[in-house]
Design a protein that fits this description.
The chain is built from nine helices and 20 strands.
């Protein structure tokens, strides 16, 4: 049994702690704030296998399979529903792009298909069909409750014996040669240390700071915190917009009906580089822009009251794909998720735990694609489609 430290108590850190505990490892999990307080509790709940490259499609096909069995495995209700994702085309050219994406997804067993606007209207009764020509529809995509999911993983991980510490910030790493030997952490103003056999950097937007603590270059894995916001309406009658609906050519604008209370969550790729890693201030520009798109997608949203607006970080790498893999002999990273870290968590956590504990994994994760050293080599991947 090895002592493994995980830095970051978002969905990636917590799910990996659970997977490592399942493999019999001795896990200590550090979260500087409260669990989920980073991007995880701010996410739009979406889960999709509709990506535009082989690596992400294959990973998400596997992740969706894990999502399907998660309630049973974690013995908890997590609000997982396969309510689908509907991408909408506004031009003939975009239809051709959709067709190419669908062909790729179908090749790996993801059952996306092109649908006409009559069918789209049946799926999303409040949809304004007029601006759109066709849709890419995968009924197996879906959504889940990030709060319930994280706490379900955490509860199970604790049952398996992990030591999970909130309000405990990692402040330093001790390195000997190419190995991390100890983690220093601060809790209640007191700094302590623990000897470790391996460390996972799961701190997402904060990951470059942790890499520096390991005496690696801050920009070895370049991650920019980008402010991504959401606005939510009062509850609408269920079934009005259950899938995530997105016309990508409209600044990646999207709507999705919250699986819990039926409010409509509205997002858009109207992003700014965050001023700092504490910059959670929602902006009026976003509110205006996102709602302008939302009422064009589904006009009845015009009559719903807005109940909430919030901001979080997309932790963006230069190609919008995460960095997943080994940085030193016993120092690993799974960070740099923009709009897809929640949906990928079941697969990434399993892969990472198996890599750390067993040296290899059964998960179809293309390690070369996500290689954290690719940026240093100047090898960018095709940009991953970002939104939730
Ligand atoms: C508005 C919005 C909508 C989104 N919608 C979706 C969606 O629909 N679907 C989807 O899949 N994804 C979505 N995402 C992205 C998703 O939320 C993230 O990719 C995912 O939550 C990343 O999880 P994580 O565990 O890697 O990071 P985080 O949840 O950010 O966790 C990292 C944690 O590390 C902690 N930490 C940092 N430094 C230290 C330290 N020194 N010591 C201890 N702890 C530390 C932080 O406090 C933080 O809690 C969305 C994101 C936003 C902002």
């Amino acid at each position: 049994m090895s002592k493994i430290a995980i830095i970051g108590g978002g969905i990636i850190g917590v799910a990996t702690a659970y997977e490592l505990a399942k493999l019999g490892e001795d896990v200590i999990l550090f979260e500087k704030n409260y669990f989920g307080s980073g991007s995880t509790f701010r996410c739009a709940t979406g889960i999709r296998a509709q990506f535009t490259d082989e690596a992400n499609v294959r990973l998400m096909k596997y992740s969706v399979k894990r999502w399907e069995g998660l309630e049973e495995e974690l013995e908890a209700e997590i609000g997982f529903t396969q309510s689908g994702y509907l991408f909408l085309a506004t031009s003939e050219e975009e239809i051709e792009t959709f067709k190419a994406n669908i062909k790729l997804q179908n090749r790996f067993g993801v059952q996306t298909r092109l649908i006409d606007m009559d069918e789209a209207k049946e799926i999303v009764p409040i949809l304004n069909t007029e601006p759109f020509l066709a849709g890419a529809w995968n009924p197996k995509d879906g959504k889940a409750n990030p709060f319930k999911t994280l706490f379900a993983y955490l509860r199970k991980a604790r049952e398996l014996g992990i030591d999970a510490r909130e309000h405990t910030e990692v402040v330093g790493l001790e390195r000997e040669g190419d190995a991390i030997t100890a983690v220093k952490f601060r809790s209640n103003g007191k700094v302590e240390g623990v000897k470790v056999d391996a460390v996972l950097n799961a701190s997402n937007a904060w990951a470059p700071r942790i890499n520096e603590m390991a005496s690696l270059k801050h920009n070895l894995v370049p991650i920019t915190p980008c402010k991504h916001q959401l606005v939510k309406t009062e509850p609408l009658e269920r079934g009005q917009a259950e899938p995530l609906v997105c016309p990508p050519s409209w600044d990646d604008a999207y709507i999705i009906q919250d699986g819990e209370d039926g409010g409509i969550i509205c997002g858009a790729g109207i992003e700014h580089k965050a001023k700092s890693l504490d910059d959670y201030e929602p902006t009026y520009d976003f509110l205006k822009g996102a709602l302008r798109y939302a009422v064009k997608i589904a006009p009845p949203i015009r009559y719903a009251h807005i109940v909430r607006q919030w901001a979080g970080f997309y932790a963006k790498t230069p190609d919008s794909n995460p960095a997943i893999g080994k940085l030193l002999d016993n120092f690993y990273i799974a960070a740099g998720f923009s709009g897809h870290g929640f949906m990928m968590a079941p697969a990434v956590a399993q892969a990472m735990a198996e890599l750390i504990s067993r040296g290899r994994s059964k998960v179809p994760l293309d390690w070369e694609w996500y290689d954290p050293y690719r940026f240093e080599r100047g090898e960018l991947r095709s940009s991953a489609f970002q939104i939730g």
